[in-house]
Amino acid sequence: MNTLIVKIGGNIIDDPCALTGFLKDFSKLAGAKILVHGGGKLATDILEKLQIPVKMHEGRRITDAETLKVCTMVYAGWINKSVVAQLQALGCNAIGLSGADGNVLRAHRRLPEPVDFGFVGDISADAVDVSFLTALFEQGLCPVFCAVTHDERGTLLNTNADTVASTLAIALSKAGFTKQIICFEKDGVLSDINNPQSVIDEITEENYALLKEEGAITEGMIPKLDQAFAAIRAGVGEVHIKHARNLLSGKGTVVRKTRD
Amino acid sequence: MNTLIVKIGGNIIDDPCALTGFLKDFSKLAGAKILVHGGGKLATDILEKLQIPVKMHEGRRITDAETLKVCTMVYAGWINKSVVAQLQALGCNAIGLSGADGNVLRAHRRLPEPVDFGFVGDISADAVDVSFLTALFEQGLCPVFCAVTHDERGTLLNTNADTVASTLAIALSKAGFTKQIICFEKDGVLSDINNPQSVIDEITEENYALLKEEGAITEGMIPKLDQAFAAIRAGVGEVHIKHARNLLSGKGTVVRKTRD
Predict the structure, then answer these.
(1) What is the pTM of this model?
(2) Interface test mutation site (partner A, options B22, B63, B101, max chain A beta carbons within 10 A)
(3) B3-185 adopts what CATH topology?
(4) How many angstroms from the chain centroid is the CA of residue B234?
């Protein structure tokens, strides 16, 4: 079975018009597909209003018990169910999932050394129940994942949405061709950060090193591309990096093993 | 397929020890089963902390847009996913659902006349996708429902948890024998409100009228029993009314059509 895994981030979640437009496009995609969504600003807003201090370490949130509660409420509750309801209205038979539902995505709490990030989960590719997902696809269902997982001992864990998308894509690649689409705020990987038109169409293992050497790839993009290549090496067919508004168009950067 | 539908209310949700004990017992029940949970005090606490005024009409909450957001966060997010994660830890393959997920439970917004309750959904028995539930049972999954539904037009709706449980039980009764268990704060229907030991073991259509005439059934219990008999008349095999701590014991009141 061929599968498409699309990940959207907070910039789309926080913009109701952009989200509606994206979901319209997403609902038109044929075949087995999964949507993974990030969080957006709502959790931070609610944490502030509830006067729960937002603790960060090097730009990453520390998830204490109260923060986990709010993140689960916002990600698995309001965002996930609103997206599912909107997709249903568009004729896409969506089903919202956390990693705990059907035990589909198992994780373990990150070790507290050197930094204790609290209730944060790390997952591995063999932690995905592929047969459960395949059964959903066979029923014509479209899983919509929030980035909340569990440790199989009753504890929910806040997880990185990019990692969730990438883990699902890798696991599903054992069962067929898997294409992953990562939506972000630019049209693709740019060769000139100051020129939004300078989208690099294709990046392969061959030209990646060269592009980095030339300084054509900015530092901020390197972790994203490294993760994309890690997914490709683990079996994912293609990773597309593009703007959510271009979901149905060819515009964007395709990352693949070798030249097409 | 025989199915068991168990409903727990806010009194159990609000008591972590009672909830853990209940979930242990629930996980031991064999066969196809569904858990429906109510809300508890967390939504009200958060509404208060966020300074969203709680509007009521004759003891029933009016759900405006902000209230719907908080209710969805709390019911479909934190409570639903915590319950699912706890059941998973107990070896019960739970999957959390709102009515929007898989379009399993369709509703319509209640008419604004004579009182506008806001984003409140009314459902009917033919709005349940029984084949979706049957497919989940066949995969060994246990659906865990929060009382949030949708109108198929993209709007989520706050719904009465007793109605959700009763609607599911009636719909599933077309596919086999259905037993519904309603957990509440007493051991069963009492013949003497001041004597917690005075549990009526069995209420049938025959003795219900008589019990009411004798004044043996208090007014507060009449809507609950009327709803139970409505479910029985619509096909449900038995409705048990009992305390959550007695889930695995025979203690409680059984409502059925005729004497066993």
Answers:
(1) 0.96
(2) B101
(3) Carbamate kinase (3.40.1160)
(4) 17
